[in-house]
Design goal:
alpha+beta, two-stranded antiparallel ribbon
Length: 101
């Protein structure tokens, strides 16, 4: 997943694909900058196309969190002049402005 944590309380339910190759927390996907919900029931993980989740996981592997400095930070701050990226729970801890809250 994105945050590689066991923080289900903050990040929502950990969802796993039917083949168990992709797993991510619901809120980690919901707030990820490059993920858009899918209206297809085929290859779907919490309302997101599994292929899109995999692409976002790959993109996130190159993005370091502004708070904890670990990879997987796919959530951007909503302040236009801010360049910070976060994991979902790190954004909450840092009181970052993130969309869809």
């Amino acid at each position: 997943g994105f945050c590689k944590s066991n923080r289900d309380k903050e990040c929502g339910m950990l969802l796993t694909s039917s083949n168990h190759k992709v797993a991510a927390h619901h809120k980690c996907m919901l707030f990820s900058s490059a993920l858009v919900s899918s209206h297809s029931d085929i290859d779907n993980l919490g309302g997101f196309a599994i292929e899109d989740v995999q692409k976002e996981l790959k993109r996130g592997s190159k993005l370091m969190c502004s708070l904890c400095h670990c990879p997987g930070a796919t959530i951007g701050c909503d302040v236009k002049t801010c360049q910070k990226t976060y994991h979902f729970y790190c954004a909450l801890d840092d009181k970052a402005q993130i969309g869809r809250a």
